[in-house]
């Protein structure tokens, strides 16, 4: 009978908190369907047969499937590299179109200020590009809170690969058992649980397209230790909520 893997052991108090960006701290209204369609179009231009990739899958799954199709068909490495460069450039451009409508999620600044005042080390792990992430933080005035940031533009693996989270924690000098990752999507839960890092979910803002699909039950089933309805609820869970005025 196989030996069951031990549950991760978490220590108190927390030392570092890493956040997802889009949907968790900022609301950007990205046209993800258009991004996915563009990645599929480029993959087909590089030899992936039509109908093999689904626009319903997240971008990283589409890219993984496209690479596998290309390997199976013996696509030359040069064509694979061109596909990689072209799809990154295209989704970067579409992503930046959302910048003018990007706003902080309610409660974001207050939460980050309170965590910083308590001495928590704060980091950001996002599948957004470095350019978008930096500009979005500046636009929403959240940039001062983040000395540590890892985006999909960084060398090496990207979220949901657990190594992306582990690399950021090493940079922050935060042990795994003293860390918390916060996100609003099952991809975030996947990344944290595979890295054996504690995960707290924040339900999507009601204005987001994922609202209603990312439920408390789904997050708990995916390994979340707690689920908050919004950032103010998360502040209460982390015991950094501002006291109500008398």
Total beta-strand segments: 8
Read across the widest sheet, the strand sequence of neighbours is 5-4-1-6-7-8
CATH architecture of the largest domain: 3-Layer(aba) Sandwich
Unreliable spans: 1-7
Total domains, how many? 2
- Alpha-carbon distance between the two ends: 60 Å
What is the H/E order?
A: EEHHHEHEHEHEHEHEH
Which value, in Å, is the CA radius of gyration? 19 Å
* Large-scale geometry: globular
Total helical elements:
9
Output the structural class. Answer: alpha/beta
Largest β sheet strand count, sense and barrel closure: 6 strands, parallel
Helix content: 40-55%
Global mean pLDDT:
90
At the first level of CATH, the class of the largest domain is: Alpha Beta
As for the CATH topology of the largest domain, it is Rossmann fold
CATH superfamily of the largest domain: HAD superfamily/HAD-like
Percent strand equals 5-15%
How would you describe this protein?
The protein has helices spanning 32-45, 59-72, 77-96, 108-117, 130-139, 162-172, 186-195, 216-221, 231-237, and strands spanning 16-19, 26-27, 103-104, 121-125, 148-150, 179-183, 198-202, 226-228. It has 246 residues and is of the alpha/beta class. The protein has two domains: 16-28 and 102-237, Rossmann fold (3-Layer(aba) Sandwich), CATH 3.40.50.1000; 32-97. Strands 5-4-1-6-7-8 form a six-stranded parallel sheet, with helices on both faces. Strands 2-3 form a two-stranded antiparallel sheet. Strand 4, helix 5 and strand 5 form a beta-alpha-beta unit. Helix 1 (32-45) runs parallel beside helix 2 (59-72), helix 1 runs antiparallel to helix 3 and helix 6 crosses helix 7. The chain is globular. The N and C termini lie far apart (60 Å).
